[in-house]
Amino acid sequence: xxxxxxxxxxxxxxxxxxxxxxxxxxxxxxxxxxxxxxxxxxxxxxxxxxxxxxxxxxxxxxxxxxxxxxxxxxxxxxxxxxxxxxxxxxxxxxxxxxxxxxxxxxxxxxxxxxxxxxxxxxxxxxxxxxxxxxxxxxxxxxxxxxxxxxxxxxxxxxxxxxxxxxxxxxxxxxxxxxxxxxxxxxxxxxxxxxxxxxxxxxxxxxxxxxxxxxxxxxxxxxxxxxx
Length: 227
Fold this sequence. Notes:
By secondary structure, the protein is of the alpha/beta class. It has helices at about 10-20, 80, 85-105, 125-140, 160-180, 185-190, 195-210; strands spanning about 1-5, 25-35, 45-50, 70-75, 110-115, 145-150, 155, 195, 215-220.
């Protein structure tokens, strides 16, 4: 039986992870939430009200109070929601690193799964730099971890994102045309193919739950379809 902790279970990818985890019989899931969110599904999924802004809250991660073999982090916000770069970094960078640091301290054998972004290995711009800093922090901790680096996520976000919605309509047909011209397996092109939140969640769960993760694993491009 795996003890799984999920942060960001109400978001696009996180909600899909919770849905898929509910179908498994080999897990017990603790969903960290700021407020009651309707994620509980006894006996598999239990909500835990968690104050992400309080340093002391993190000490429970991976301890006897909150066992954790696998921590899946899909937490995130937008610059618009956060209200500025500092507030954005406090969510997208600091929370994942606080969770990972606590987990490494309490259970060095655990695995950390993180929803990063395509381009985080060669960051340009504030958003990708934030993701890159999380990836670097995970490497420094020495904790086994899996990085999912999706491109544009297909699905309905809680907050309207007009530009992403427009791209979600425009890009898939263009990539379908690339397939016609024999570019279906072009590695660089496929890294940027829009992908469903369900596929990202599926791949991340398969890698963290069904593989013996050693060190760092990265999922991107066609890797999402060959877990």
